[in-house]
Design brief:
462 residues, Methylamine Dehydrogenase, Chain H, 6-stranded antiparallel sheet, globular
Length: 462
């Protein structure tokens, strides 16, 4: 065993074993790595309340892992070890969105990547950091659970921080709150089961060393938040809340949708759903929302209450394929793309496309993207990128014609979950980066253009 490997093993054992005094106060340098576990300068009151700890900090500097030029558009996803994937290590994969070719892949220490997967990936709005929720892959042996949220330097793909999140980390998304602050949401896998016992979600500020600024526990929410999404104006976070025990009660008890004010982080309305609500998307004007109800093979349409005393209410239901999961609206808002994942059942391989005005199915697209969970809209609205857990690839479809444009195999045959588009522009003598779309929808200049009804163009064309 190498000196570095011995160090990482000791670190993991110390963290899991709960060496509290060491983990909360001591800084140790070793082979370019610095442990800054929960120093007072990082541990905010909210971090301590929510049980989020910084257990390791490293020097991520070094040469860039890939080339990025002004006008480039890159797609970041993960390549995990679940769903019978032959891939041995969880990693970040960088794909050139124009050539459809992977151009870089991270090489994370085995202690944080071997037999692990990520069911989501996120980047800070300025693309400085990449967040990889690390969780035991499906089918891994018992006793291999190592539940951390890894923070990587996006340019070098080297590890910067390791956050112990107090529960199994699940999805990560960027958003802009009602005051314009650029933040990142990290959610736990809040299933009430022995293998995935989450404790809620938390929000970090990437401009302040990823410190925790807000969050809610399952007690705060009075339920298990599955996945949260922010409205286009950033004023509200909507969190789907399925029944408390998925395996036992998912088909028997209805869930709800928690509407949370991002200025106070308090629930202002609980909107009744059907069985097992999972994903939420919003129209750009903020008037409508849609929620997948996985156990019912359907999507519910919600009319949002925009006045001070108005309440959100369900106004329509549309049937989909089996076990619907992620969704994305077309740029003009006329079509809703729903991933027929087969959640809780046989792997799905279709996308249901719904007319948002007529509340009816336009078409069912055969993608052979097995167990597709997330759909990400390209920043110009021309493409939908679907991540495929079980076929271990990413599928690119034309947003207008619904035709298949490309299929991108994951390096080492890993399972892909989620994705983020990053646009690059000239900045002085260098290159700046900006996240323009992720699982939460359009972001940055792409969102600003869409809100104005203007086409988004890459920096090189402006």
């Amino acid at each position: 065993m190498t000196r570095t490997a011995r160090y990482v093993s000791v670190l993991v054992l110390a963290t899991v074993g709960g060496a509290a005094l060491w983990a909360w106060s001591i800084g140790v340098k070793h082979d370019g790595s610095v442990v800054l576990a929960q120093q007072a300068t990082w541990a905010t009151p909210e971090a301590q309340r929510l049980g989020v700890r910084l257990v390791e900090t490293r020097d991520p500097n070094g040469s860039a892992a890939y080339t990025a030029q002004p006008g480039d558009l890159l797609f970041f996803t993960n390549s995990g070890t679940g769903y019978a994937a032959p891939n041995p290590k969880n990693s970040v994969v960088v794909i050139n969105a124009k050539t459809r070719k992977p151009i870089a892949m991270s090489d994370i220490d085995a202690a944080y990547s071997e037999k692990l997967s990520s069911h989501g990936i996120g980047l800070s709005p300025d693309a400085k950091y990449t967040y990889l929720p690390s969780m035991t892959s499906i089918g891994a042996a018992e006793g291999t659970t190592r539940e951390y949220t890894l923070v990587l330097d996006t340019r070098t793909l080297k590890l910067y921080q390791v956050l112990a999140t107090g529960g199994t980390p699940h999805h990560v998304k960027a958003f802009r709150d009602g005051n314009g602050r650029q933040l990142v949401l990290v959610e736990h896998f809040n299933w009430n089961t022995a293998n995935s016992a989450g404790k809620g979600w938390f929000v970090i500020d990437p401009k302040d060393d990823n410190k925790v600024v807000a969050g809610m526990t399952t007690n705060d929410l009075h339920g298990n938040c599955y996945s949260g999404f922010t409205t286009p104006d950033g004023k509200y976070l909507y969190c789907t809340v399925p029944p408390p025990n998925r395996n036992e009660l998912g088909r028997e008890i209805d869930g709800w949708l928690a509407k949370i004010d991002t200025s106070t982080w308090k629930t202002v309305q609980s909107i009744p759903m059907h069985h097992y609500p999972l994903w939420t998307v919003f129209s750009l004007d903020g008037k409508w929302a849609w929620v997948t109800n996985s156990e019912d093979n359907s999507v519910l349409k919600v009319q949002r209450g925009l006045g001070p005393r108005d309440r959100d209410k369900v106004v329509a239901e549309v049937k989909t394929g089996g076990g619907p999961y992620g969704m994305r609206l077309s740029l003009d808002g006329k079509e809703l793309w729903v991933a027929d994942k087969g959640e809780g059942g046989p792997a799905g391989k279709t996308i249901t496309i719904i007319d948002t005005e007529k509340d009816s199915v336009v078409s069912t697209v055969q993608t052979d993207c097995l167990r597709n969970d997330h759909i990400i809209l390209s920043p110009d609205g021309s493409e939908m990128w679907a991540t495929c857990n079980e076929s271990h690839d990413v599928v690119v479809l034309d947003a207008k014609t619904h035709a298949m444009k490309s299929r991108i195999p994951m390096p080492n045959g890993g399972d892909s979950h989620g994705g983020v588009f990053v646009s690059y522009a000239r900045s002085g003598n260098g290159v700046s980066a900006e996240v323009v779309s992720d699982q939460n929808g359009l972001l940055g200049s792409a969102l600003d253009a869409a809100l104005k009804g203007m086409p988004w163009t890459p920096p090189s064309a402006r």
